[in-house]
Design a protein that fits this description.
The chain is an alpha/beta fold. About 35% of the residues lie in helices and about 20% in strands. The protein contains 6 helices and 6 strands, in the order H-H-E-H-E-E-E-E-H-E-H-H. It has a 6-stranded mixed β-barrel. The chain starts with a helix and ends with a helix.
Length: about 210
């Protein structure tokens, strides 16, 4: 009886094993054993460094474009080579002393001034009254005066004292930039306004340069 029991148990185990093998190797519906699963398209992963670099380049390019749109191009000013000397309102330059009705008054009618935009003398045939020049080493000067010795490519720069003339300038040959060609007239109001704007750190306003 014992032998028959063990023999029967072995037969059951063998049958169970065969059933399991049949289930494991049975093909799935619609597929064969040799079919391969289709490949899935996975999204491309970009390294964070590449993303940052690309974004930075795009931002820089856009910033430069906006800057070019908002920043007006600096005009190419005419340049003229001149001999520049210095003068004062005193008797040594004008023949007038303090107390004279015309002391310190230029040909244009404005008062002499050493400021952000100073008064200078020039030949009106070359630089009409009201012309605005940039003189290297001196600054901005507006043509407000004339002089018997100031002819052709020669200009006279205003200084408050003769000591300033000798110490700060003397006589130089420079290439000046013509910022604005004068109309032959100059007002004290214009001179005051442009100096006030320049002193406030606003530079030289376009409205004043065109007026």
């Amino acid at each position: 009886m014992v032998t028959s029991f063990f023999h029967y148990k072995k037969m059951l185990l063998a049958i169970a094993a065969l059933v399991l093998l049949a289930i494991c190797f049975k093909p799935f519906p619609g597929k064969t054993m040799n079919q391969e699963a289709p490949l899935q398209h996975m999204p491309v992963i970009v390294a964070p460094e590449s993303v940052k670099l690309t974004a930075a380049l795009v931002h820089e390019e856009r910033t430069e474009t906006v800057k070019q749109q908002l920043t007006p191009q600096k005009p190419a000013y005419d340049k003229v080579k001149v001999v520049a000397t210095g003068y004062t309102a005193g008797i040594e330059s004008t023949g007038k002393r303090p107390g004279h009705p015309s002391y310190g008054i230029t040909y244009s009618g404005v008062k002499v001034r050493r400021d952000m935009v100073s008064t200078i003398a020039a030949d009106p045939k070359l630089f009409p009254i009201g012309s605005l020049l940039y003189i290297p080493g001196y600054g901005y000067g507006v043509v407000a005066d004339t002089g018997s010795a100031i002819k052709g490519s020669r200009i006279d720069l205003y200084f408050e004292t003769t000591a300033d003339v000798f110490k700060q300038w003397g006589k130089r040959t420079v290439e000046v930039e013509v910022i604005r060609k004068g109309s032959g007239k100059l007002s004290q109001a214009w001179l005051n306004k442009i100096n006030k704007a320049a002193e406030a750190g606003k530079g030289l306003p376009e409205a004043y340069l065109e007026s």
